[in-house]
Amino acid sequence: MPRIDPIPRETVPQYEPIFKGMEDSIGYVPNSFFTMARDHGIMTAVGAMSDAFWYPDTVDEPLRRLVTFAYSHFAGSYYSSAHCACGAEELGLAREKIMSIFDYETAPVYSDAERVVLRLCRHAARIPGEVTDADVEAVKAHYGVSVAAFITGLICFMAFLNKWNEICGTRLEDVPYAWAEANLKPLGWHLKR
């Protein structure tokens, strides 16, 4: 049961372009957007951030999905990890990369460049954070400064979404819930609805 109830979509037609963008991207509107719609500033900012991080020219979809899934799963945000993993395979992220997330240092499915990003995600997910200068330098060495900045922003955006959904008690939608129930349990995924 949500701690903060979402509002009905039809009561906030001003956000329809944001909702439509989410439907076009993942096939449904996350329930969190209907909770955020209670505040114009938050909804507008999240809509702009979503556009910035989901439709960039600099980082491809599989890497974005890997970052968002890994950071969320390492942080224990199973609402977001389900969202990020569900549909990722159709967008180019091999299922083996999702299922090998805890073995990222040694699993042959990852490139050296992906390993440094996953290390950054793992260290960023810790409380307190464990990111080191070496972590960021390694990402910059593989991807360049602009992509390192983008990945940092993507992790921070996911941290916001993770905490929002955790605090609000956002109900995970049926599609990602069913996918996660069928696929992510071996990774320790669990979520009560």
Query: What is the CA–CA distance across the termini?
Result: 7 Å
| CATH class annotation of the domain at 60-187 | Mainly Alpha
Morphology = globular
Helix content: 55-70%
Biggest sheet details: none
| Rg, nearest Å | 16 Å
Please give the count of helices: 10
Low-confidence segments, ≥5 residues, pLDDT <50? none
Query: What string, H for helix and E for strand, traces the elements in order?
Result: HHHHHHHHHH
CATH architecture of the domain at 60-187: Up-down Bundle
The fraction of residues in strands falls at under 5%
Q: Provide mean pLDDT, rounded.
A: 95
User: How many strands in all?
Assistant: 0
Describe the structure.
- This protein has about 190 residues and is mostly helical.
- The protein has a domain at about 60-185: Up-down Bundle (AhpD-like), CATH 1.20.1290.10.
- Helices cover about 60% and strands about 0% of the residues.
- It has helices at about 15-25, 30-35, 40-55, 60-75, 80-85, 95-100, 110-125, 135-145, 145-170, 175-185.
- Helix 4 (about 60-75) crosses helix 9 (about 145-170).
- It is globular.
